[in-house]
Amino acid sequence: MRRFVAVVALAAVVAGLGAWIVSAQPAWYLRIRYPLRYQSIVRSHSRNYRLDPSLLAAVIYTESKFRADAKSSSGAIGLMQLLPDTAKGIALHTGGSRFRVSDLYTPEINVRYGSWYLRHLLDRYGDERTALAAYNAGQDNVDRWRAAGKGIEFAETRSYVARVEHLKRLYRKAYPDQLSS
Q: What is the 3-state composition of the chain as percent helix, strand, coil, each rounded to the nearest 5?
């Protein structure tokens, strides 16, 4: 009976500690749960394109969970889940002339193109929420919603925007020195 009470008490302590960790979300826990891969690429391109590095990390995590080989059912590729046609246009805008779809699996190229595109959307729309909605749902949809005086019409896109904004705060908390602007 004593052994049973000791095991139950230990289980309660472990459960309480686990609950505290999940609710308090200390930085070390967030770093385990939300890894930051390709840190130098994220920092470099966030600086080059005047992006909050925590925002860039949050977009990458939301899009691919930092998997460079990610490919969606819609054909989006790489860390920032770029569609080949979008990436080809970005390559042309940024002086590239030898774009290959396979380039999108290269983290440096994918994040460079995705960072350029995110900066383009921020400049075009003037606010982060709208730019993120356009990154997820496309500029045509966002333009149509805005012309009709409506907000984000797709539930999936509203969820995407909220998720990226939440992750941006978590990445800022987890990596204050690595992702400082």
A: 70, 0, 30
At residue 141, φ and ψ (nearest 5 deg) are -65, -45
Task: Decide if pLDDT at 13 tops 60.
Answer: no
Specify whether the CB–CB gap between 71 and 82 falls below 8 A. Answer: no
CA 76 – CA 88 distance, rounded (Å): 12
Average pLDDT over residues 106-124: 97
Mean pLDDT of 95-99: 81
**Burial (CB count within 10 angstroms: exposed 0-12, middle 13-18, buried 19+), residue 73:** exposed
For residues 34 and 180, what is the distance between their CA atoms, to the nearest angstrom?
A: 17
> Quick one: tokens of 169?
């705060």
pLDDT band at 12 (very low <50, low <70, confident <90, very high): low
- pTM reported for the whole predicted model: 0.89
Catalytic site includes residue 63: yes
Which residue's structure tokens are 């309480």?
Answer: 16
In this prediction, residue 28 carries a pLDDT of 86
Q: Name the active-site residue from 63, 128, 153, 165.
A: 63
What is the CB-side half-sphere exposure of residue 136 using CA atoms within 13 A?
A: 24
